[in-house]
Amino acid sequence: MWIYCKTVDDPKKVGELICKFYFVQGIDKKKPRIWNDKTEDGCWVIKTDCVNEIAAMIYRAGNEVVVIEIDDRCAADVIESLIIKYGFDNVKWLLAK
Q: CA 44, CA 15: separation in Å to the nearest integer?
């Protein structure tokens, strides 16, 4: 699933927000970390400690849009945290199967 958030915030800051609201508040007990993806300029990934798997990728698409690629199972809670911070009108999502 792709989530689009209209913001001038840095993708790292958006990733930190996702970690704070979604993963740390007890929904997922895996203690995630946000890392700079050295293979992609300006791309950040959220990895979980338990198996070091990628939970989300976050990057900028234009001057005012941050894109989050995330598994469908996690998306609803991430969307909710983004809406709380940035407002409903600034968050859109696309599910492609």
A: 7
